[in-house]
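Researcher: We're teaching a course module on how sequence relates to structure. For the next exercise, students receive a sequence and then see the predicted structure as tokens, so they can try to spot secondary structure elements on their own. Here is the exercise chain.
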Amino acid sequence: MSKLLSIIIPTYNMEALLPRCLDSLLVDGALEQLEAIVVNDGSRDGSLAIANRYKERFPDTVTVIDKPNGNYGSTINTALPVAKGKYVKILDSDDYFNSDGLLAFLAELQTADADILVTHFTVLNADGKTELSKYNVYGKELYEYGRVYELDNVLKDGYIRFFLMHGLTYRTKMLRQMNYRQTEGVSYTDLEWATYPLFVAQSIVFYNIDLYQYNLAREGQTMNPQVLVRNIGQLEKVTDQLLKFFGNYDKSKLSPVRLQFLRQYYLNRLRIVCKCHLLDMPREMFDSERFSCAESEYQKVCEQFDLGTIKLYPENKILHFDAMAYWHRRHQRWPSWFERFNSLCDRIMKNLYVRIFR
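Model: And here is the predicted structure for the students to work with:
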């Protein structure tokens, strides 16, 4: 039986949160139109038993795949070939959907015809505060909701932020035609989910729907700054895979607009890795020799692919000092007093940004 939407739910030791995730999907009015594919990635707790109980209750909606542990990418690679939906989306099992938003999204999918579908998402912070992430450019909503755009006409704006896993849904057929696969054995491969389809997608549509509820409050969450710093090696491996994909892709298939956007996008990915080392990592963990080797390779990549120069200005836009330029001059990070001051400015400006634009 075909479905409108397949939702892939990677699951590893999430017995405490998986019921909330599934309950947010299995609501009246949605069951016949969606497929929830729970991929149990070798959990050692009761996650598999919970998933199977939901399968027994909703046999036409819930599919359970049990496999040995292979990390995040392996769950997507396992589920995608069997997905029955016209469209496919990922939902991490520690997150959940706004059920009303899901019903509204399914209603839009009845007539949807685009390769990429973009919805809003809400960030649930550890301090209990929430932030609605809407896809605007400095407060201006440039794109008409529900209107299908040629992707190049959106990419020409050069805006990167909306390409995050939480807001993205894809046409399943497109992913299969491009033989989509994620890297296995490491975390942070949702970056691949947000990147590789940009090479082939032709159309995009935005919906004014708050769908994904992104839980940053869970201890051990991979995007927690402390966890991310500890796992910097995995982020670097995924970045290397992204660069490999770009290097192997036939650039003649890309329009000038697409190629320019992807260069900007990849430069930003390198900037983020450098930021983790130079700005986010505790000073006692910083390894100057390791970063020097990695940064040297990134500079070569920038020259090879004509990406531009990696610059690392503070996000607060108050202090206009380039951390990368400082590194090249001194071969060290900013002084500790300056890092503390910069961090304070970042927090102030983030709070102002949230108040003004969200």
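Model: If you want an answer key for the exercise: Residues 225-357 form one domain. The chain has a mean pLDDT of 91.
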